[in-house]
Protein backbone atom coordinates (compact mmCIF):
# COMPACT_ATOMS: atom_id res chain seq x y z
CA UNK A 1 0.00 0.00 0.00
CA UNK A 2 1.48 3.40 -1.05
CA UNK A 3 2.11 6.00 1.60
CA UNK A 4 -0.04 9.10 1.91
CA UNK A 5 3.00 11.35 1.50
CA UNK A 6 4.00 9.51 -1.67
CA UNK A 7 0.52 9.95 -3.14
CA UNK A 8 0.53 13.67 -2.29
CA UNK A 9 3.97 14.18 -3.85
CA UNK A 10 2.85 12.39 -7.00
CA UNK A 11 -0.27 14.57 -7.30
CA UNK A 12 1.77 17.70 -6.57
CA UNK A 13 4.22 16.78 -9.34
CA UNK A 14 1.36 16.18 -11.81
CA UNK A 15 -0.27 19.50 -10.87
CA UNK A 16 3.06 21.38 -11.31
CA UNK A 17 3.54 19.83 -14.76
CA UNK A 18 -0.02 20.81 -15.75
CA UNK A 19 0.61 24.40 -14.56
CA UNK A 20 3.81 24.61 -16.62
CA UNK A 21 1.98 23.37 -19.73
CA UNK A 22 -0.84 25.87 -19.20
CA UNK A 23 1.60 28.74 -18.61
CA UNK A 24 3.38 27.93 -21.90
CA UNK A 25 0.02 27.84 -23.73
CA UNK A 26 -0.93 31.15 -22.12
CA UNK A 27 2.32 32.80 -23.27
CA UNK A 28 1.70 31.60 -26.83
CA UNK A 29 -1.92 32.78 -26.78
CA UNK A 30 -0.91 36.20 -25.41
CA UNK A 31 1.74 36.59 -28.13
CA UNK A 32 -0.80 35.71 -30.84
CA UNK A 33 -3.35 38.08 -29.33
CA UNK A 34 -0.79 40.90 -29.20
CA UNK A 35 0.07 40.37 -32.89
CA UNK A 36 -3.63 40.64 -33.80
CA UNK A 37 -4.04 43.83 -31.76
CA UNK A 38 -1.02 45.38 -33.49
CA UNK A 39 -2.28 44.29 -36.92
CA UNK A 40 -5.74 45.76 -36.25
CA UNK A 41 -4.26 49.05 -35.01
CA UNK A 42 -1.94 49.28 -38.00
CA UNK A 43 -4.70 48.61 -40.51
CA UNK A 44 -6.91 51.17 -38.73
CA UNK A 45 -4.17 53.79 -38.95
CA UNK A 46 -3.52 53.06 -42.63
CA UNK A 47 -7.20 53.25 -43.52
CA UNK A 48 -7.72 56.42 -41.47
CA UNK A 49 -4.96 58.40 -43.20
CA UNK A 50 -5.61 60.03 -46.55
CA UNK A 51 -3.06 59.30 -49.26
CA UNK A 52 -0.11 61.65 -49.51
CA UNK A 53 -0.81 63.69 -52.67
CA UNK A 54 2.19 66.04 -52.56
CA UNK A 55 4.58 66.09 -55.52
CA UNK A 56 7.50 63.71 -55.29
CA UNK A 57 10.59 65.22 -53.64
CA UNK A 58 13.69 65.71 -55.76
CA UNK A 59 17.23 65.10 -54.54
CA UNK A 60 20.25 66.50 -56.33
CA UNK A 61 23.22 64.16 -56.36
CA UNK A 62 26.39 64.76 -58.31
CA UNK A 63 24.87 67.49 -60.51
CA UNK A 64 21.86 65.50 -61.61
CA UNK A 65 18.37 65.58 -60.09
CA UNK A 66 16.85 62.32 -58.96
CA UNK A 67 13.09 62.11 -58.51
CA UNK A 68 12.13 60.08 -55.48
CA UNK A 69 8.73 58.44 -55.33
CA UNK A 70 6.36 60.02 -52.80
CA UNK A 71 6.27 58.31 -49.45
CA UNK A 72 3.32 56.13 -48.57
CA UNK A 73 2.79 53.81 -45.64
CA UNK A 74 4.67 50.57 -46.15
CA UNK A 75 7.00 51.99 -48.77
CA UNK A 76 10.66 51.06 -48.77
CA UNK A 77 13.21 53.24 -47.01
CA UNK A 78 15.53 54.67 -49.67
CA UNK A 79 19.26 54.79 -49.12
CA UNK A 80 20.22 58.24 -47.86
CA UNK A 81 21.96 60.45 -50.41
CA UNK A 82 23.26 64.00 -50.01
CA UNK A 83 20.36 66.38 -50.56
CA UNK A 84 17.69 63.79 -49.78
CA UNK A 85 15.31 64.96 -47.06
CA UNK A 86 13.22 63.01 -44.56
CA UNK A 87 10.10 64.02 -46.52
CA UNK A 88 10.72 61.04 -48.81
CA UNK A 89 10.22 58.63 -45.90
CA UNK A 90 6.95 56.97 -44.93
CA UNK A 91 5.14 58.76 -42.06
CA UNK A 92 6.32 56.39 -39.29
CA UNK A 93 9.96 56.71 -40.32
CA UNK A 94 9.60 60.48 -40.76
CA UNK A 95 8.27 60.79 -37.18
CA UNK A 96 11.29 58.88 -35.85
CA UNK A 97 13.60 61.15 -37.83
CA UNK A 98 11.81 64.28 -36.55
CA UNK A 99 12.11 63.20 -32.92
CA UNK A 100 15.81 62.39 -33.23
CA UNK A 101 16.56 65.49 -35.31
CA UNK A 102 15.28 67.66 -32.49
CA UNK A 103 17.87 66.23 -30.10
CA UNK A 104 21.00 67.68 -31.78
CA UNK A 105 22.79 64.37 -32.17
CA UNK A 106 21.85 63.05 -28.71
CA UNK A 107 21.01 59.35 -28.93
CA UNK A 108 17.81 57.68 -27.75
CA UNK A 109 17.02 54.04 -27.12
CA UNK A 110 13.95 52.36 -28.61
CA UNK A 111 11.93 52.49 -25.40
CA UNK A 112 12.42 56.28 -25.23
CA UNK A 113 11.58 56.58 -28.93
CA UNK A 114 8.39 54.54 -28.50
CA UNK A 115 7.24 56.81 -25.67
CA UNK A 116 8.15 59.93 -27.68
CA UNK A 117 6.06 58.54 -30.55
CA UNK A 118 3.10 58.21 -28.19
CA UNK A 119 3.24 54.42 -28.08
CA UNK A 120 2.99 52.20 -25.03
CA UNK A 121 6.30 50.98 -23.67
CA UNK A 122 5.44 47.31 -24.25
CA UNK A 123 7.78 44.85 -25.96
CA UNK A 124 5.76 44.61 -29.19
CA UNK A 125 5.69 48.38 -29.71
CA UNK A 126 9.34 48.83 -28.72
CA UNK A 127 10.41 46.07 -31.12
CA UNK A 128 8.44 47.71 -33.93
CA UNK A 129 10.30 50.96 -33.30
CA UNK A 130 13.60 49.05 -33.07
CA UNK A 131 13.09 47.42 -36.47
CA UNK A 132 12.30 50.80 -38.07
CA UNK A 133 15.32 52.44 -36.42
CA UNK A 134 17.60 49.58 -37.52
CA UNK A 135 16.28 49.92 -41.09
CA UNK A 136 17.05 53.65 -40.99
CA UNK A 137 20.59 52.82 -39.79
CA UNK A 138 21.21 50.30 -42.57
CA UNK A 139 19.99 52.84 -45.15
CA UNK A 140 22.23 55.62 -43.78
CA UNK A 141 19.57 57.88 -42.24
CA UNK A 142 20.53 57.23 -38.60
CA UNK A 143 23.61 56.12 -36.72
CA UNK A 144 23.88 53.60 -33.92
CA UNK A 145 26.99 54.59 -31.94
CA UNK A 146 26.25 52.01 -29.24
CA UNK A 147 23.94 49.02 -29.61
CA UNK A 148 20.35 50.20 -29.27
CA UNK A 149 21.20 53.92 -29.12
CA UNK A 150 20.06 55.79 -32.23
CA UNK A 151 20.75 59.35 -33.41
CA UNK A 152 20.81 61.50 -36.52
CA UNK A 153 24.37 62.03 -37.77
CA UNK A 154 25.61 65.38 -36.43
CA UNK A 155 27.29 66.14 -39.78
CA UNK A 156 23.81 66.51 -41.30
CA UNK A 157 22.65 69.01 -38.70
CA UNK A 158 19.56 67.03 -37.74
CA UNK A 159 18.93 65.23 -41.02
CA UNK A 160 15.41 66.46 -41.77
Task: Sum this structure up briefly.
The protein has 160 residues and is mainly α. The chain has helices at residues 4-48, 91-101, 110-116, 123-138; strands at residues 58-61, 64-67, 108-109, 143-146, 149-151.
Commentary on this structure:
With 160 residues, the protein is mainly α. Helix content is 49%, strand content 11%. It contains 4 helices and 5 strands, in the order αββαβααββ. The chain has helices at 4-48, 91-101, 110-116, 123-138, and strands spanning 58-61, 64-67, 108-109, 143-146, 149-151. The strands form 2 sheets. Strands 3-5-4 form a 3-stranded antiparallel β-sheet. Strands 1-2 form a two-stranded antiparallel sheet. β1 (58-61) and β2 form a beta hairpin.
Which range best describes the helical content: under 10%, 10-25%, 25-40%, 40-55%, 55-70% or over 70%? 40-55%
Structural class: mainly alpha
Outline the low-pLDDT stretches: 66-72
Query: Sheet bearing the most strands, described?
Result: 3 strands, antiparallel
Amino acid sequence: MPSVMGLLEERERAARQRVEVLQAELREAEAAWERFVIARETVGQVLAEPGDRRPAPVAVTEDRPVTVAGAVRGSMVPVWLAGLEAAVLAPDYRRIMDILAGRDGEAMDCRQLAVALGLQSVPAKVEGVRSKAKRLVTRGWLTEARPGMFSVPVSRGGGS
